[in-house]
Amino acid sequence: ALLEKEQERQAKERLAAKLRELGINPQTI
To answer: Which molecular function terms from Gene Ontology are attached (predicted)?
Structure first.
């Protein structure tokens, strides 16, 4: 379960980073 949580957190971080690259503020979504 811990590994799943870690993978989910990393996926969200990658998504947020991609949004920032596109000039979108993740907090606005």
So the answer is: endonuclease activity
What's the whole-model pTM score? 0.58
Rounded-to-integer distance, Cα 19 and Cα 12, Å: 10
pLDDT in tens, 1-29: 789 999 999 999 999 899 889 987 667 65
Tokens representing 14 are 């990658």
20 SS3 class: helix
Give the single-character DSSP code of 22: T
Q: How far is residue 25 from each of residues 3, 4, 6, 8, 15, measured CA to CA in Å?
A: 27, 26, 23, 20, 11
